[in-house]
């Protein structure tokens, strides 16, 4: 089971992570570390999490297994310059802004799952017919997608079920 928490308003990423970990996982004063590519984690802890944000929404996915998580607001427009960088098979599946962001977030969630950078991995990744391919080979790593609050979300990892909870962060907007 994956738990997803999200909020709107101004909140620093680390503050949101620490708040959720303290309130819902009994991790007071969590000491966040980051990988060389900037992915936050708790040293020596079995909790896995990944943060994403888009147009004022901040969201955190928390589970017991590795997870990549990304979102994009559907209020934006598909970016033609980026669209041209998708593979031919992907472009054949992209017919709307929602399709564009579904493909974008799937790719981004896989990059975050690996703990890599988009720049280093973009050309190696493909999202076709709901599956992630890396260097031309299917990864077998599931991607789950959903929409809420006019935002498309992608979860990369072995999670068949998820709970989503909108929370009011105490300091948001202050």
From TrEMBL:
InterPro entries: 4-PPantetheinyl_Trfase_dom, 4-PPantetheinyl_Trfase_dom_sf, P-Pant_transferase_sf. One of its GO terms (biological process) is lysine biosynthetic process via aminoadipic acid. The keyword Metal-binding does not apply. One of its GO terms (molecular function) is magnesium ion binding. Residues 66-129 form the 4'-phosphopantetheinyl transferase domain. Keywords: Transferase. Pfam families: ACPS (PF01648). GO terms for cellular component: cytosol. It comes from the Bacteria. Belongs to the P-Pant transferase superfamily. Gsp/Sfp/HetI/AcpT family. This is 4'-phosphopantetheinyl transferase superfamily protein. It comes from Candidatus Borkfalkia faecipullorum.
